[in-house]
Amino acid sequence: MSHPLFDLTGKTALITGSSRGLGRAFAEGLAQAGARIVLNGVNAERLEAAAQEMRDQGFDVLTAPFDVADEAAIVAAFEALDAQGIDVDILVNNAGIQFRKPMLELDTADWRRVIEINLTAAFVVGREAAKRMAKRGRGKVINIGSLTSELARATVAPYTVAKGGIKMLTKAMAAEWGEAGIQSNAIGPGYMVTDMNEALIENPEFDAWVKGRTPMRRWGLPEELAGTCIYLASDASNYVSGQIIYADGGMISVL
Ligand code: GCO
């Protein structure tokens, strides 16, 4: 039995980019804490398969397939939820892509796409969710940042800039939406075992660097982020806003 402050029974959580990876781990954790889950992704088939897997575990799961880079699709998705009487109490802005290339070789179109998906989408989806949360006088927005919200790594400039923006967007949301009863916070994952990082994990030099640079001497597992997400989605964090919590094995805190 979880502490009542962490109980999400009766709450609905929308997690963008949640058919796999970190988004799926957030969805599983929030479901285990009692929330109804709305999964999101661009691939409707993969999304439905993920939803069915979670339903088979006994969780209450819906799907809202839309591309976070498509503002009209985002607006339509929220209108469809409205029409079904589904209120999003918790939003996890997780969807994101990675694009590794030195800036001197980087096309502007690739720069723009990363910023669009990793930063602008969090604003658009956040705005649509907050419009509705504000009417109810409560809501939780959880943006997914990165170690690159604080520190730059060569060859991932657009991702770094977007994640730095996520940190400040989180504070801007806290500044504007606090009086409406909405808390806006972020999670900063460390180097996690995900599909997006597969090339890094399989690179012996990079793998050794991550393990040497991380006090816990290992990569993180997506499910290790669930507790921080549950905390920020729950009443346990009702007076916490504008913060970014790093779950990174200690990496951001050491030289
Ligand atoms: C990279 C990685 C990182 C991690 C994560 C670290 O190329 O350096 O993709 O960006 O995914 O964001 O916090």
UniProtKB/TrEMBL annotation:
EC id: 1.1.1.69
InterPro entries xref list: KR_dom, NAD(P)-bd_dom_sf, Sc_DH/Rdtase_CS, SDR_fam
Enumerate the Gene3D superfamilies for this protein. Answer: NAD(P)-binding Rossmann-like Domain (3.40.50.720)
EC top class, as a word:
oxidoreductase
Keywords associated with the record: Oxidoreductase
Q: Where is the Ketoreductase domain?
A: 11-190
Q: Which GO terms describe its molecular function?
A: gluconate 5-dehydrogenase activity
* Pfam families hit by this protein: adh_short_C2
Domain of life here? Bacteria
For this protein, the record's PROSITE patterns field holds: ADH_SHORT
Give the family per the record.
Answer: Belongs to the short-chain dehydrogenases/reductases (SDR) family.
Q: What is this protein called?
A: Gluconate 5-dehydrogenase
